[in-house]
């Protein structure tokens, strides 16, 4: 059974302050962490007034200057332009971790199946219904790579899918593969920024982001865009790299932990990392913002809330169904397998031919293993539903 975590209050701070793409020094905020691990869906309740104050703090710590953002985006686009071809050649069209049963013995041939399992596990964690009346009909794939998830999901649900990536090479290849598979009328790709998505509000009933969140220099804006493009009743599935949650006694990561993350940031074009708790908090706060801006609460709801003496935002958040889980153990065999494939003659020569950015990323792969082993890096899934 999958375990999920519900967070009631959180610490929020900039977690990799010396990262090359972060201009801000660490700012520590109100720290009060309470985590309850449960095995099923849990509802999350937070206090409205303190959460909006903390929200402002998240925004401040996540800011990355425009110049830094542009430099980062350029680096990401070039990294994937250069490396997507060799990845596809060796690993196929999914550029994400596989999902494995903990401690299972893993055959090399199992890795592609494990990547599909990752998609299925994510859908199942989000309780996405197999009931045909409730299947998603329109999907956005935020940070789509060469479109593996978009095509898989479009085929599975018979839905449309729109993918966005920063890499022109990826967008072109993703479309070519969709056309070749007869999906050209259902699936489309374009170069666009996840922080400024070219879609109207409420367009998609499944918002999918598989391992792109770690590249986003403004997590608040990222989460805000995911929430904005989700249709009422739609599901958001966010699978991403995080650093560990801080302990109640901690104000920041340890210096050696920051140092390790910095090295990974440089190689993979990542800005500051955040924790799973930070993402959950952002989703919760985002709901509150939506609530405020649309005058969501009708007067009778406010009256009822007052009558029964609980904060009105409980009514809203109970419907959010925010769930999170740590799948680090389930992805453990992945990086060793990638390193093994890079050490074959084909892998080695392809990496060298792809240029310096790909070489740098390949050299950083053992650092990911080190991060996981130290419990610093967490492979997180966070899902929620936008209220109807
Ligand atoms: C590791 S790949 C994951 C690809 C894909 N989700 C998959 O599972 O195969 C990361 C993707 O995130 C995209 N990305 C990173 N930052 C982005 C941004 N600001 N806007 C849109 N896409 C972004 C990259 O272009 C790349 O396609």
TrEMBL record:
Keywords: Alkaloid metabolism, Methyltransferase, S-adenosyl-L-methionine, Transferase. One of its GO terms (biological process) is methylation. Pathway: Alkaloid biosynthesis. The keyword Flavoprotein does not apply. Residues 229-238 are annotated as: SAM motif III. SUPFAM superfamilies: S-adenosyl-L-methionine-dependent methyltransferases. InterPro entries: Methyltransf_11, PiNMT-like, SAM-dependent_MTases_sf. Residues 139-148 are annotated as: SAM motif I. Residues 140-238 form the Methyltransferase type domain. One of its GO terms (molecular function) is S-adenosylmethionine-dependent methyltransferase activity. The keyword S-adenosyl-L-methionine applies. Residues 202-210 are annotated as: SAM motif II. Homodimer. Belongs to the class I-like SAM-binding methyltransferase superfamily. gTMT family. This is Methyltransferase type 11 domain-containing protein. It comes from Anisodus tanguticus.
């Amino acid at each position: 059974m999958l375990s999920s975590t519900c967070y009631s209050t959180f610490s929020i701070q900039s977690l990799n302050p010396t990262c090359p793409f972060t201009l801000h020094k660490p700012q520590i905020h109100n720290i009060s962490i309470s985590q309850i691990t449960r095995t099923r869906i849990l509802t999350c309740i937070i206090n409205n007034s303190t959460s909006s104050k903390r929200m402002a703090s998240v925004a401040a710590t996540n800011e990355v200057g425009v110049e830094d953002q542009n430099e980062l985006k350029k680096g990401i686009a070039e990294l994937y332009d250069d490396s997507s071809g060799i990845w596809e050649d060796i690993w196929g069209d999914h550029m994400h971790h596989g999902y494995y049963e903990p401690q299972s013995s893993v055959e090399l041939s199992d890795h592609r199946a494990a990547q599909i399992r990752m998609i299925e596990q994510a859908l199942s964690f989000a309780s996405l219904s197999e009931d045909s009346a409730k299947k998603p009909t329109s999907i956005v794939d935020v940070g789509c790579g060469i479109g593996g998830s978009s095509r898989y999901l479009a085929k599975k649900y018979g839905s449309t899918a729109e993918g966005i990536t920063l890499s022109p090479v990826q967008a072109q290849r993703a479309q070519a593969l969709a056309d070749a598979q007869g999906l050209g009328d259902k699936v489309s790709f374009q170069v666009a920024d996840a922080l400024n998505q070219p879609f109207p509000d409420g367009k998609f009933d499944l918002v999918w982001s598989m391992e792109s969140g770690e590249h986003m220099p403004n997590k608040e804006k990222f989460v805000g865009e995911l929430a904005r493009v989700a249709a009422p009743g739609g599901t958001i599935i966010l699978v991403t790299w995080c650093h560990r949650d801080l302990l109640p006694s901690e104000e920041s990561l340890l210096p050696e932990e920051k140092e390790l993350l910095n090295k990974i940031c440089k190689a993979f074009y990542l800005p500051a990392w955040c924790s799973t708790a930070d993402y959950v908090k952002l989703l919760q706060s985002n709901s509150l913002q939506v609530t405020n801006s649309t005058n969501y609460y009708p007067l009778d709801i406010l009256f009822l809330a007052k009558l029964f003496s609980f904060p009105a935002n409980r009514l809203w958040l109970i419907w959010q169904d925010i769930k999170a889980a740590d799948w680090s153990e389930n992805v453990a065999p992945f990086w060793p397998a990638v390193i093994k494939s890079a050490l074959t003659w084909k892998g080695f020569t392809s990496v060298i031919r792809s240029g310096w950015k790909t070489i740098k990323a390949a050299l950083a792969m053992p650092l990911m293993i080190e991060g996981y082993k130290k419990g610093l890096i967490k492979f997180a899934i966070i899902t929620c539903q936008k209220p109807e």
